[in-house]
Amino acid sequence: MRRGDGIDAEDGAPPVILRLIPQILFHDLTPVLLAIAAGWLLGRYLDVPSHPAARLSFYILNPSLVYMSLVRSDISGVELFRFLGFAASVPFVAGGFSLLLSLALSLSAAERTALMLTAMFVNAGSYGLGVVQRAFGDAALARAVLYFMTNNVLLNTLGATLALHGGGGWSWRRLLSIPTLYAALAAALVRWSGWHPPEPIEAGIALLSRGAIPVLLLVLGLELARIRLEDRRRLIGLGALVRLVGIPLIAIPLARLWGLEGPAWQAGILESAMPAAISNVVMAMEFGIYPRTIAGIIFLSTLLSPLTLSIWIAWLRG
Fold it and tell me: Which parts of the chain span the membrane according to its record (predicted)?
């Protein structure tokens, strides 16, 4: 059965989805949410800083995970091209959709940019990788890593440029400072050449890679504990709705257009349904674009995401 196509009314599938949701919430999402909650408690009550762990993830753990996932994956060249095309096209289409929506609602320029940023850039790493692995296993995780990398590159280029309204918000130095890019290049070289590092070195990288997702989830909890909200409920609610429901619905025809199947389909749709990226707050603070409003969209979309993700996972399993 292809990609959830078997879910329709005459098969009685909607009730099946409803029955699956509690099971998915408990078995697939509870472990992820517990790790996030542990980070939130540490940040909220013990004032544990997130920066050291975030830097550890950024420079060591994430590159290790990217390298091992790509080296061990069964992704062909054709599938790689299709998936990267999909992962790159989703933010552009999401940006266009949110731009048209904000114009229709007569939002201000800053509100428009806030809506576009949170629609385009998702928490594909600290949240997405854990959920995808838990729901669909390591094959889907390898594809999710590609989505995470693509989203990260676009956030540091297109996102920064958007935040400055085209004022040159990014540089090659910013782009070339992303360690996961070098990990991906190293993995590509290993796969192309057939040569592998000595076993103890690769075992060490594998050991580090296993710590990436737990630390990322703890960092997400630490970051969420520092979010402070403001009373812009209309925009915050709209941003969360667009992020959790609107963009995944747009991603479905895009994924079909790019010919995604199996684990690539599962990872692509599920990553597109993730809440807004924490990095959007950093961008908003740097460029003065309603940082507390963007923080509110991130917080609300993350808070509601267990329910919406359960629905998407149930649909993808149909």
Answer: 20-41, 53-71, 83-107, 114-132, 144-164, 201-223, 235-258, 294-315
